[in-house]
Amino acid sequence: MRTSDATVLPPAAPAAFIRYSHEIAAAITLPAGARALVAPGPLTVAGGVAITTACAALSTRLALLAFLADPDADEPIGITGHDPFTEPMPPALLGRGPAPDRDRVRRAGDRCVEAWRRWSQTDDSGQSVVGVSGALGLGAWCAWALGSELRAATRARYALDLRDDDPLARLVLRSCGVHVRPAWRG
């Protein structure tokens, strides 16, 4: 069966679709990742995978960060990735706005680290380094938001060891290095 030249994709086209697959997966798993970050009880394997998958894109991490910082957000119904072209940056990114629930943020940060630990102990988990690094970057922000600069810097360094271009981990590490604290921490 012969196809016309008009329907044949150039050789580089399939790679372009595969290149951003982690962002598509992150957007799809965002509500499940948000639930896994704050759910009661121990972190399940599926919850760990949902967290690391949802953290594979910066836009979804910013949405998770805003969700965690919102003291009125109980359930991630309708949560979507952050659109930097139409939405302002979440004020909580820089520690502004109302103080988040400390227990909720602590639980989320600890779960990010637990997801990383599980990933580091297995090779066949199906989770990407991008998502695991992203989860550690989010976990670093959680520690920073609670005023634990040393813990935040440590988590950020581990994230950058996995992926040295992680923007959230870099921001947290820089904030810790110059002793910038969230406004709600005083």
TrEMBL record:
Domain of life: Bacteria
Segments of this protein annotated with the region Disordered: 82-104
Protein name listed in UniProt: Uncharacterized protein
